[in-house]
């Protein structure tokens, strides 16, 4: 459908005019963007968007990376520095390319980006954080700030703690504009917010850096805030960044700027967009702009006239005073064409933004938006003209067809698949294609019996609007997975035993085990232990394709266990020399356990306590069964005596013992004992005697122990002797010393010197030392008769 709209267009004066070229530093403005990474908690993408003077001779104008810095607002502590890489460089479309060309103006939109992980442990402060980037210097020709040539450009944005899900607002792309003095302008400098937060706009004095202006590494991280603000020139301020009558204004709700510049020059201003959620501020982003104002001529191009307006069938058109509303189907194309003449240049716009790829007389439209075109002189700078009416293109409301399954589907070997086109409401016709070729007779909503791989397309046409909805599904032909059941070494089991069945393994496989064609519970593993007789198989399924295959079958046989009987074992005492016969049926099995020898149980060898005796019998089928009995060997009572003792004849001692309490006690022989039925009697034997203690428990079991008491005669030690050779009392005779063969005798003089010593007193001392007579005097002795007897000491006097 074609329409001619020549009669609908009026002239709108352009905003560019010829004049002296204005040059700036290579960075003209820009802003930051911080947005969360999809499905990666705590991961964000940082963008820096800069507007570069493409004609700059600054060697840093072609840099491919830069550094942004993260700070905590509460105390301005640096948390991270992040290097960003160049990701795109696109030319900025000028609304009046003739004026831009006459001034040799070329601007590139350059974007840098990188990802960063912001952990909650580091980015959880409720006062939030800021990210910044800075470079020096601005163009010295900027006319509204002082010391412009040494003033830095600081991009700045604030964001909340990462526990608050948030994306920063995104400014709309800027147009390449040169303003004419005394001409009114309205610019949309607003932003969009991915979170749907309320946006508020304000003007702000641009920031500068505390860093010296020259000799700075282009990759150096930013300094920490707070940042100083630039100093406005005389007559300029935050709310009056450039001469305008009426005054320069910013709509706080939409971000729209209105002005009528009254003075030529290059001017800088900053717009801040704040985001609010439920009345609370979440963050903000700053964007710096440079605005060029020139004196323009009054030469105007002829009004814009469309020569063609091609609409597809079914397009709805509603003509208003300033907007032509056009409704198209998704996938349709509109073609608008203005007069083709080499004298004119055209710049098409969508939603007020210049389209870089739409600079000719014609445009092809496939997207929604409000479209207009600006007409200028192709060879010189002058005013512009625009369409008096704009085209507001919207997609018509239409149901979307969706193929199920889709957008990808698989069909298993030997199986088929049905593809269904789902679309709301009646009045649809369908056509199916495979790999770009129509399928004969495929005109229903369901395509049945699909067995081949390919790309299947359905076209669903609304019989009323003629809008066509399309959907595709990629069908793959999937092979069945292998299903192999390994044959175990044993397929005949004994009752109670199990065998492991093993299927082939692989990634993305699941399993279902069958016994006698009945699926078994809890059978998702590649192996399974079975203990019941039956015919087994396994189904293997590939979870990536949904295809499955059943294995061959395997028969498992289960034989019964033999019945074993084992006679009980009577109680015996541990000290008894008892051997008991063990009896069990069927005969021919084996007995095992402590104290077992063949078919007998030896109580003494087993020792006291309970002992499990096992009888194992193996049937001809190879299946075996066991029976157990407990052999109870009663513990013997405790009867412990110490080592032997030595006493002097006529002395007594307590026979100490460690015995079981509440038992009976019997000592033998009873001679010399005060009571032979006590656990610890007093012994006074006249001669060396060995005593035996029997401890008998209430159950009749007993234990015995013995102790030997050595009885020695007492010694008599004289207190003097007369070694004068008269044959009477010439030596120191110690009566009964011969009974103490290992006694030690030592004699000292009054000064403590040893005058006599012997091991065993076999020869009586004659009062000499080294065969010389000792003088008459009193001497002192120490006699160790026996290790268990007290030491004897005293004095002995020699008389001559």
From TrEMBL:
Q: Which InterPro entries match?
A: Ig-like_fold, T9SS_type_B
| PROSITE patterns reported in the protein's UniProt record | PROKAR_LIPOPROTEIN
Pfam families, per database record = CHU_C
Name it. Answer: T9SS type B sorting domain-containing protein
Q: Which organism is it from?
A: Salmonirosea aquatica
């Amino acid at each position: 459908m074609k329409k001619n709209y020549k009669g609908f267009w009026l002239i709108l004066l352009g905003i560019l005019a010829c004049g002296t070229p204005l040059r700036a530093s290579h960075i003209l403005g820009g802003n930051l963007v911080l947005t969360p990474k999809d499905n990666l908690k705590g991961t964000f993408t940082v963008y820096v968007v800069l507007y570069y003077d493409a004609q700059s001779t600054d060697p840093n104008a072609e840099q491919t990376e830069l550094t942004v810095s993260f700070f905590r607002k509460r105390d301005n502590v640096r948390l991270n520095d992040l290097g960003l890489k160049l990701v795109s460089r696109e030319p900025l479309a000028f609304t009046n390319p003739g004026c831009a060309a006459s001034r040799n103006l070329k601007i590139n939109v350059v974007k840098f980006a990188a990802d960063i992980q912001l952990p909650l442990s580091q980015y959880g402060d409720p006062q939030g954080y800021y990210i910044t980037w800075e470079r020096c210097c601005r163009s010295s020709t900027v006319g509204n700030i002082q010391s412009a040539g040494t003033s830095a450009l600081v991009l700045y944005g604030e964001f909340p703690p990462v526990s608050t899900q948030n994306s920063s607002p995104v400014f709309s792309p800027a147009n390449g504009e040169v303003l004419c003095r005394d001409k009114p302008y309205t610019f949309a400098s607003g932003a969009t917010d991915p979170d749907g937060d309320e946006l508020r706009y304000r003007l702000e004095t641009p920031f500068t850096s505390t860093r010296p202006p020259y000799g700075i590494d282009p990759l150096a991280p930013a300094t920490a805030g707070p940042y100083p603000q630039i100093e406005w020139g005389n007559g300029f301020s935050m709310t009056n960044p450039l001469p305008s009558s009426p005054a320069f204004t910013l709509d706080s709700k939409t971000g729209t700027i209105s002005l009528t510049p009254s003075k030529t020059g290059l001017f800088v201003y900053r717009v801040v967009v704040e985001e609010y959620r439920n009345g609370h501020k979440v963050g903000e982003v700053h964007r710096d702009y440079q605005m060029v104002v020139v004196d323009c001529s009054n030469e105007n191009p002829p009004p814009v006239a469309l020569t063609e307006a091609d609409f597809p069938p079914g397009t709805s058109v509603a003509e208003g005073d300033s907007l032509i509303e056009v409704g198209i189907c998704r996938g349709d194309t509109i073609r608008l064409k203005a007069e083709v003449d080499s004298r004119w240049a055209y710049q098409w716009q969508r939603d007020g933004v210049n389209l870089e790829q739409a600079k000719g007389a014609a445009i092809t439209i496939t997207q929604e938006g409000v479209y207009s075109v600006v007409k200028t002189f192709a060879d010189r700078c002058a005013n512009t003209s625009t369409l008096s009416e704009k085209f507001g293109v919207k997609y018509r409301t239409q149901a979307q067809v969706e193929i199920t399954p889709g957008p990808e589907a698989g069909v298993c070997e030997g199986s088929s698949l049905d593809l269904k086109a789902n679309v709301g409401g009646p009045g649809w016709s369908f056509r199916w294609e495979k790999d770009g070729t129509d399928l004969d007779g495929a005109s229903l909503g369901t395509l049945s019996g699909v067995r081949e791989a390919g790309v299947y397309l359905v076209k669903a046409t609304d019989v009323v609007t003629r809008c066509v909805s399309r959907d595709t599904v990629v069908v793959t032909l999937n092979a069945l997975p292998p299903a192999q059941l390994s044959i175990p070494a044993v397929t005949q089991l004994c009752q109670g035993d199990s065998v492991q069945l093993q299927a082939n393994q692989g990634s993305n496989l699941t399993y279902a085990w069958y016994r006698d064609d009945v699926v078994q519970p809890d059978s998702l593993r590649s192996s399974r232990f079975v203990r019941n007789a039956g015919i087994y198989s396994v189904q293997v399924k590939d979870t990536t394709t949904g295809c499955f295959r059943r294995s061959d079958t395997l028969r498992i046989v289960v034989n019964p266990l033999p019945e074993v009987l084992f006679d009980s074992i009577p109680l015996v005492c541990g000290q008894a020399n008892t051997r008991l016969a063990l009896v069990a049926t069927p005969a021919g099995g084996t007995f095992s356990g402590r104290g077992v020898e063949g078919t007998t149980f030896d109580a003494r060898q087993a020792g006291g306590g309970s002992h499990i005796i096992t009888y194992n019998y193996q049937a001809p089928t190879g299946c075996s069964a066991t029976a157990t009995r407990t052999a109870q060997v009663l513990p013997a009572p405790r009867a412990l005596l110490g080592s032997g003792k030595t006493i002097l004849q006529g002395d007594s001692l307590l026979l100490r013992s460690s015995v079981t309490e509440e038992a009976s006690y019997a000592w033998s022989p009873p001679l010399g004992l005060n009571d032979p039925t006590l656990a610890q009697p007093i012994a006074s034997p006249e001669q060396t005697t060995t005593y035996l203690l029997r401890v008998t428990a209430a159950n009749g079991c007993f234990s015995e122990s013995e102790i030997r008491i050595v009885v020695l005669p007492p010694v008599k030690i004289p207190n003097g002797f007369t070694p004068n050779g008269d044959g009477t009392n010439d030596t120191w005779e110690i009566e009964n010393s011969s009974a103490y063969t290992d006694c030690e005798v030592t004699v000292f003089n009054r000064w403590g010197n040893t005058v006599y010593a012997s091991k065993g007193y076999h020869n009586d001392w004659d009062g000499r030392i080294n065969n010389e007579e000792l003088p008459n005097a009193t001497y002192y002795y120490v006699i160790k008769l026996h290790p268990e007897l007290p030491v004897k000491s005293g004095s002995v006097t020699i008389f001559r």
